[in-house]
């Protein structure tokens, strides 16, 4: 049956801008799918399949005054990225567009439109080229692989199918579930850059917690996040009502559904810091914090011990920090993101310790200061992560979240009052002169930090007091409690 749609459905000013370059070719994939579903996005991705991608790309460069970059994805792709758009140009696979479409991932992505039809003057409709029944699957709301080996040929398609299912609120076709469960193990050998790219598309939306449960049900969770193997073996213990795997999933869920929506309430003006640092295009500190939440207890399976009938996990924060750093480097998120995740996991327990001291009436300014000192630029990320972690511990802790969040305001007040504008009263050079140190060494840094702590605690207020304090410092007597 011939399927025709109004051609204005696929109008985009960038397509019109490059129409002179498109004497032949087809629009394919997600752009067609989204337009048929009536989905409009802030950033549009347009995939073009053509016979001569090199010459088309050269023409597009001139029309857009924009340089392309190329990459390999089963074939060479020429990509143009600008504000609000991305255009990918690649060669038609096979002898026809129909043959090309039959090699794609899902039927809903295997629909094409002849780009020449969009610019004919006297017809209002365009023909959908749909050899696999994708249009009908769009109407049914089904994610169906195009052919029987679609997922084993490219296991990354499993993650893409889960993402599409969540984004579009579709259902899986039975063939997707069968193929995915059969070959999910192959994701363990997938190129890390491609795993990262698919994960970023999920992380930038607030459905990562749903995504984790979906891939877990398909057997794809551990092949992707292999460092978390063993969390399912840690049972509920102590304050923890849930096994570690369930606690982990709940922590990510609460971060997305509770902590992030309330960040301005929980962190006050410092909530604006969450999400303002971009590690690379499409991936900020906000998305990185979700990965830190996923890995925050990764050290527990290797540190678990039983004592007096209870489980202990001494040092799991330190080990977990190393694990998450290695995981993010393995998945090609980069050293800066790995450093942030390391810091968040390393100090994720500290706010709870402060809370316990507070409830006992034993919380000191020094303990608060040292938390902010150690967590550094990611202290507020740690606090927000702690909200999700606390609420995911048990139903009782979840009911106590408002009290815990109120406690955090005391930490925020301390930071605003004592630390935000804190500047050292003495420079490193001045400290060297006072102590008779000829060349910079580790002791100079130690002395500077000790002096800054005394300033934050209100024990040193003037430069004269700072000089007197530094004269009494001992390099080896550094961080005694």
Provide a descriptive summary of the structure in words.
It contains 25 helices and 14 strands. The chain is of the alpha+beta class and 481 residues long. It has 4 domains: 1-132, Beta Polymerase, domain 2 (2-Layer Sandwich), CATH 3.30.460; 141-207, Orthogonal Bundle (Hydrophobic Seed Protein); 225-419, Hypothetical protein af1432, CATH 1.10.3210; 428-471, no CATH class. The longest helix has 19 residues, at 401-419. The chain is elongated, with a radius of gyration of 28 Å. The termini are far apart.
Helical coverage, percent range: 40-55%
Note the beta-strand portion: 5-15%
Identify the overall geometry: elongated
| Sheet with the most strands, sense and barrel status | 8 strands, mixed
Features:
single chain; 481 residues; alpha+beta; Beta Polymerase, domain 2; Hydrophobic Seed Protein; Hypothetical protein af1432; 4 domains; eight-stranded mixed sheet; two-stranded parallel ribbon; 25 helices
